[in-house]
Amino acid sequence: MTTTTLAKKDIQKLQRAIVDGLEDVKAQDIVVFDTEHLSSLFERVIIASGTSNRQTKALAGSVRDALRDAGFAKPRIEGETNGEWIIVDCGPAVVHVMQPNFRQYYNLEELWGDKPVRLKFGAVKPVVKASVKTTAAKKVVAKPADSLKRSNAAKKGVQETFPSKAQVRKAAEVKAAADKKPTKKVAASKVPASAIAKPAVKKVADKKPLTRKT
């Protein structure tokens, strides 16, 4: 890879970091110009607007932080005292953060705007969509067994009746009572008392002692 190609990639990475820093704080009307053919001191001029002193200062600070995160050297910042026109010197690129009235008055676009650079602003990150199979599986798992039966019956056009909780509880109580009930025994036949023969009881007469006659 040649030196020219490396330098080109570095300036593209630098301008991307600067634009990202400006977008993070909602800068307005961001434009990028290629000034390599106009000056040997820098290759890019970037102009952006801030609606107040507070926002222009925040924009300059956001650019500084974006460059640090991207691995570039700390830029030199001028004009932060009043915040009407802040210049952020990033070496190969110079950033002008201006309030709208100052930007309109000095009209830097006319001075540096021969070759505008096209950039994608506010690039949207790709969103990974869940697969249809995964979503369907989650829905099936979430349904209880009774819900599945009811939905299947509805699909087939069959009207099925399902017992209510009260009916199920009543059936369980009846079954439990039936299990606890003792088995019915056949009653013994009653025999009249007169039919029962009492055993004969022999009474032994008291024997008197025999007296001997003399």
In short:
This protein has seven helices and five strands. It is α+β, with helices and mostly antiparallel strands and 214 residues long.
* CATH H-tier superfamily of one domain: Beta Polymerase, domain 2
Q: Encode the helix/strand succession as letters.
A: HEEHEEEHHHHH
Percentage of residues in helical conformation: 40-55%
C-alpha-based Rg, rounded: 53 Å
How far apart are the termini?
172 Å
How many strands in all?
A: 5
Spatial arrangement of strands, main beta sheet: 1-2-5-4-3
Strand portion:
5-15%
Q: Assign an overall shape.
A: elongated
Secondary-structure class: alpha+beta
**Text of the CATH class of one domain:** Alpha Beta
Low-pLDDT stretches are: 124-143, 154-161
Count of helical regions = 7
CATH topology of one domain: Beta Polymerase, domain 2
Largest sheet: 5 strands, mixed
Give the CATH architecture of one domain.
2-Layer Sandwich
Integer average pLDDT: 75
What's the arrangement of secondary structure elements?
Blueprint: H1 3-24, E1 28-34, E2 44-49, H2 53-70, E3 76-78, E4 85-89, E5 93-98, H3 100-106, H4 108-112, H5 132-142, H6 145-156, H7 165-180
Parallel strand pairs: 2-5
Antiparallel strand pairs: 1-2, 3-4, 4-5
Helix pairs in contact: 1-2
Description:
The chain is α+β, with helices and mostly antiparallel strands and 214 residues long. Among the domains are: 7-112, Beta Polymerase, domain 2 (2-Layer Sandwich); 128-162, no CATH class. The protein is built from 7 helices and 5 strands; from the N terminus they run αββαβββααααα. It has helices spanning 3-24, 53-70, 100-106, 108-112, 132-142, 145-156, 165-180, and strands at 28-34, 44-49, 76-78, 85-89, 93-98. Strands 1-2-5-4-3 form a 5-stranded mixed beta sheet. α1 packs antiparallel against α2. It is elongated.
